[in-house]
Amino acid sequence: MNSPHDPVTVTIDSRSLSAARGATILEIARAAGLYIPTLCAHKDLTPYGGCRMCIVEVDGMRGFPTACTTPAESGMVIRTHTAQLHEIRTEILRLILSEHPCSCLVCDEQDECRQYSATIRKAGVTTGCRYCPNDGQCELQEVAARLGITEIGYPVYYRNLPVHKDDPFFDRDYNLCILCGRCVRMCQEIRTAGTLTFLRRGPQTVIGPAFDRTHLEAGCEFCGACVSVCPTGALAEKARKWKGAAEREVTTTCPFCGVGCQVRLQVKKDEVVGALPAEDDLVNRGQLCVKGRFCIPEIVSHPRRLRHAYKLRDGVLVDIGWEEAATLAAERLTACPPEEFGLLVSANCSNEDLYVAQKFARAVMRSNNIDTTFRLAYGASCAPYVEHLRAPATLEDLRRAEAVIAIGLDTRFGRSVIGAELRKAFRRGARIVTIHHRPHDLAQIAAHWLRPAAGQEGELLRELMAATAPAARGGRGKTTGGADIAAAAGTIRESGRTVILLGPMLLDRTDGPDLLRAVHAWAAALGAAVMPLPSQNNFLGALLMGAVGELLPGGAAWADTAARDRLARRWQSALPAEGAQWNSSLVGRGPRRKVLYLLGEVIPNPRAGAETVIFQNIFHPPDLTGADLVLPAAAFSETDGTVINGEGRVQRLHRALDPPGDAAPDWEIVCRIARAMGAAGFAFGSAREIHEEIATLIEGFDAFDAPARAPHRWPLAECDLPAAASAPRSDGSATNPFLLLTTNLEHTHRGFAMADRVAGLSRLYPLRVVEMNPVDARTMGIADGETVAVTAEGLDRCWPVCVTAAQPEGLLHVVLPPGELDGANPRRVQVRKCHV
Fold it and tell me: Which of 90, 217, 550, 745 could bond 213 through an S-S bridge, CB–CB 3.0 to 4.6 Å?
């Protein structure tokens, strides 16, 4: 008797093939390199059998079964290309094409047209292949060519459906849709989002969000998975609609958050024209969020990319070459005393960039004044947040969890790969508790949505912690904001493996530090794992490379004398005489410095904090005259290196193309300046050489070409990371009827708001727009889009209003760049129309 684990052996087109039991005929054929036409089947989706193109002949089986839905059985004799199969497939395809624009598919001059563009077009914008956004990369086009379709033989029916162009990242032309259902199944099975469905019936059937809504209105995450599996041009990316097929692809790591998804850059000539998810079992498993899927080409190919160095001379911008730029930088830096130097480096840089930058500050400038802006973004929460990064939970922990507690997390437009994992966890029976003061995507799958009033998150968390303590008993507990604490606590106590997800909600609150410490203790009491989700892609790398004054490379504390001595011997250089002293002038506050070096970062009004500003980035500074020397850097797609994601995985950045103009990798620019200053130890010729030096200082940091990518608990010494500024107490006066909640803008890259570089993101991440409840707006006589003045002690700002029911009454919410607004968060404010 055959075991259920024994392989099956079949004969396909006279070839004997073996496969695991349960494999379909189509899967076995594809694995063997045999072509069977299909339009609805996809390797990641449940077999559907809708298009009928994959029919085959099987000895002893009646009819023509579809290869995608028929499990193989031992002894089967299968034929995939007979005259009868070809005739039936051709007839099916002709029927499909009778409702699909196909003039170019059956034109006998199509080859000459493609090569010479010599033939007059036979169809309009949506009816000819030469005008189709998927021309040359369309599966329907490929199947028609393989079957040799030269005529249709049926009346052509053009559906004359409107083309939907109201979504931010892709257009929908359902005249090109063949109803294969791939997009629907991808949305429902893999992303588990349920945004798409079949609408209406019979010849009127179309696909889209229910009730004729836009994707934005229907709650779409814009992950792009539906676009990726569409076999025709029905779903077309706006940014690459007419770019054509890529010539090659390069797998690298997405730079837009700390999840660390693997992405396949689509390269054509000297341009990144698209980005697709990599088949990576460790992190994203073939999925991406809106930023990784749609924003990379617009970021790295933006017209405001820096291509040449320039200096400011008498208020005039003057282009200069690298030799002059390095000499000028060296002159300014050589004349700068160590205590008057400041280097602010981006946590979006690679480990190799960060290491060279901190080595430059300490070994060349003899200064410990190096920092990153995550201290500014996280404020006083920075130090307790780092505590959670010392032993973070992993994605495998999340995939095995029985209960998940999400604190202040909305995964719709950021970290949506995590959101997809949570929906899968929900489907397998995991219980989800989400804590958030406003509607969000996790509320749809949560067993318990605890909704505190803004500013009362701390009280709710403390009640929940108390209710889950071992001494807590059943019964209905105290509630905050209408949330049922007792029921949620019962779910948590009854669950086994528990993972706590830390969203951004607590990081910029006045009581954030205390709450993060409380979560740390709570997790220990529950035996739960905590998964921080940093917004910077290399937050851990910045700490481990020593890109903050309190830490040395390898995570040792600056106060560790033995570690300092080892580093000095390795570098053969003296280290700074002074220890780490946070000075807020690094972010434009406090006393002026002689030189402020901004490496991949942007701060408001840098000239207020320095006599000389050196600006190194991939884009021009916001104010073209806001820096004395501007240096063009390579983007992540134009350099090699490594980064460390929030789980502690070391992951590779792979160079996909050359930088534009004179741009160069950050580490290379710093090395040029160091050599111009006569410094030794900066003769690196590649990122690999830098990585090898880092590996001599950090155990386990090796294998540049193929990092193990296993989650790792890197050693980070206990150290104090003081905040950029202390927040005053909120004004609780009754004369200020509204509570203003500010959120730091997470979606930045190298200091720039991504929404300023990617048109579609401006609709998803509104910046400096105050959200107000409709009841409050009517009471105040304020209409959507009007500008209001928001005032309190030390605050007087005018912002446009977005009236939305998602905002609770009495609460205002606005997203701002980090450090733009000081003070308590949330705080009491007054609101009035501007100019009234």
Answer: 217
